[in-house]
Specification:
single chain; 419 residues; mainly alpha; Growth Hormone, Chain: A; 15 helices; globular
Length: 419
């Protein structure tokens, strides 16, 4: 090469190399700064603890509150089905917004503000029509929180190597603490104070949300497009998995929506209702730890088959129970049902959804197991409960879980043969 031309091009080549090296250094520095600190991890655990306190109130004591306000079981079932219906859109909207703008923290802050405003509005409502409207708006904010928190947790543990269980157990502790404490408190002061207590837990969660830290996901610079996401969700493997999750979750959500009312019909006090929810929440924790250490030794589909089988047994036992105190140890089966289901399903879906679409993927998963299953269980469960009673409703739930068990077994055998 001509010396003059060499001199002309050399600086450009040097500049290009320097720029590339600089970009690599900046990328490395960004990764290091993205590493969560111990404080960041405990803020995330605290947020999970407080949010699950709110969830315990909504799941465990809102049905009792609505019943005390004079609403029928069918109306309460409709309240719990309208919420998940709007949750289908809510999970997609907030999940996509989180991926699009690369922030979970800011989305959670907006959502917590919305939850707080609508909860305050519920205290001023005495009409079933306006209650439907308020609970629909409330669920537009409430239903995506679980998926967004899981998304932030999964992106956090990807950089630390810590287990999902070490974060999720704090949600279980929050749920158990809330169910036990507020069950006792509400027995003393009256179930009509349920919403006021919920305002307090949401306010605390909002304060903690400001201290959360976002975590970059995927390739960082990749533009999130709906077309790319649709390619991901069209996978036959994912669609079959979601169909089976829906079937098993129908059984799970039926119990969530109607356990408190079932216990009340059996003559249980608010304290016994709190014991039942506490037993289920605490039973998750040892299973989470066991799965975090040993779960990788087992394939996901056989584990989910076992969870579905125990769901079928658990709900059949509830259907034949005649004393509300018997429900407390039966609820402890939550460890081998929901404990296995939650951790294993998340582990499986992580393999199917790339990090660039983590929040949206979690939204789709939440829509199926929470919203669609909640919608179906609220309508069908309320109809069966009103028409034939709680024992028949729980046998329907048991049958759905058994169908999911067969489905997971068949899918596992099919995939093994293909491999």
């Amino acid at each position: 090469m001509n010396p003059k031309r060499r001199e002309l091009f050399a600086p450009r080549i040097t500049d290009r190399r320097a720029a590339t090296a600089g970009a690599a250094v900046r990328e490395s520095s960004a990764e290091e700064s993205a590493m969560p600190t111990v404080r960041d991890e405990w803020v995330l655990r605290s947020f999970s603890f407080v949010f699950y306190m709110t969830m315990a109130l909504v799941v465990s004591f809102y049905p009792l509150y609505f019943s005390a306000e004079g609403y029928t079981k069918l109306q309460i079932g409709a309240i719990y089905s309208i919420g998940p219906f709007i949750g289908i859109a809510a999970n997609l909207v907030w999940g996509y917004a989180s991926d699009k703008f690369r922030t979970v923290r800011k989305v959670l802050i907006v959502i917590m503000f919305g939850m707080l405003a609508t909860t305050v509005a519920i205290t001023q409502i005495d009409s079933i029509v306006w209650l439907y409207v308020a609970m629909t708006v409330f669920n537009f904010f409430f239903t995506p929180v679980n998926g967004l928190t899981d998304s932030l947790t999964l992106l956090t543990i990807r950089r630390t190597g810590k287990s999902y269980a070490s974060f999720r157990m704090w949600g279980s502790l929050g749920f158990a603490f809330s169910a036990l404490l507020f069950g006792t408190v509400l027995r003393a002061v009256g179930v009509e104070h349920t919403v006021a207590i919920t305002i307090g837990t949401i306010s605390l969660g909002l304060a903690i949300a400001f201290a959360l830290k976002d975590r970059p996901g995927g390739s960082g610079g990749t533009t999130v497009r709906l077309s790319g996401f649709f390619q991901v969700v069209r996978q036959p493997k994912l669609l079959v998995f979601l169909a089976l999750i829906f079937t098993m979750s129908f059984a799970h959500r039926t119990n969530d929506g109607f356990l408190a009312l079932t216990l009340k019909e059996m003559g249980a006090s608010d304290t016994v209702v709190g014991w039942c929810w506490t037993a289920s929440a605490l039973s998750e924790i040892p299973m989470f730890f066991w799965l975090s250490r040993n779960g990788h030794r087992f394939k996901e589909l056989p584990l989910l088959m076992i969870a579905a089988l125990f769901y079928a047994i658990r709900f059949f036992l509830v259907s034949i129970a005649t004393n509300p105190l018997w429900i407390v140890p039966i609820q402890a089966m939550h460890s081998v049902t929901f404990g296995i289901f939650l951790v294993t399903a998340l582990r499986y879906i992580q393999q199917l959804i790339p990090d660039d679409y983590r929040a949206t993927g979690q939204a789709i998963y939440n829509i199926v197991w929470s919203c669609l299953a909640g919608l179906a269980s609220g309508i069908v469960g309320g109809w069966v409960f009103d028409g034939w009673g709680a024992p028949v409703m729980y046998r329907v739930a048991s049958g759905a879980a058994l169908a999911a068990c067969v489905g997971f077994l068949a899918t596992s055998i099919f995939q093994r043969r293909r491999e």
